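User: Structure please.
Assistant: Input sequence and predicted structure:
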Amino acid sequence: MNTKHLGVMGRALVPAIFFLACHAGMQVLCPAVAAAQTADEIVAKVLAARGGLEKTKAVQAERITGTIYFNAELYGPFLAEFKRPLKMHNEVTIQNKTVVRSFNGKDVGWVTNPFAGKDAPEPMTAEEVKDAVNEADFDGPLVDAKIKGNTLELAGTEKVDGRDAYILKVTHKDGQVSSYSFDTKTFLLAKWSGADNVNGEPVTRETLFHDYRDVGGLKFAFELVSNTPGADVTQRIVVDKIEIDPQIDEARFGKPPAVVASPTKSLGWLLMKDGISSSDLVVWTLSVLYSRLPAQLVSLSGAAQARRFRMAGWAMVPEESFRKARLFMG
């Protein structure tokens, strides 16, 4: 899923939220398993397993709520709302800070990201708008693939959680390539893998899907585990509720309101009270996170930490902030 230069809280949520919406959605080849299937045949079985193409297309809106976990102590609630055509609103709250992203379904999106010092909504970049279009397509890339300009290719099979899975390679209209692995028995999505560009560097991501349940005659995974190989960072999403065709105010897909600072005497509040800049609040947040990071990561130099965190999604945090955070920690 995927993205989106929002800092770790925003970026970590984006890919998983995308898959929560679409559900249509490396190789250990097993030709004997895949030989009798074509990409089109597998897509037909995938859509039938999910609940059928007719039911899929009949859905006009979705609302998904749950919790995202970065570790046992760092977690928070998330909300994702989608509405045809291609409208999206999602938010995640960690340590009383909320990242908000909205897209109007056409060509305008907004981002509020206090972890990057952005308490007021800012317009999405052209690249973020392109990504938002893909995210907001909750039918997924397999439905009407040719009309959307997507190319599908059967790329063999692999083992996912000990079970055989067909791999469908999807080349999107914009050139992005990703792989969807579907269980050969149930034809439910078991794994997604792909790459996105972070500060000019390709970053591989993958998501595993568990705990499928029926909602309104459609199958949805209620647990998603995402990781960036080599970055020592894993996110786990646990869905509490999925609503089909809820009432969603159109204003949710427009410009979100600016964040109003809570008048609580937290360390962040005291820093702002004393005139410390929002960039220093990012440093403070990093210092809090350091207490929960593996020792081998904390011991790296500021430059090395910046590279590792960029891989994990901290695209907006400059190297200097890592150096300051180490001093802040003493």
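The two ends are 37 Å apart (CA to CA).
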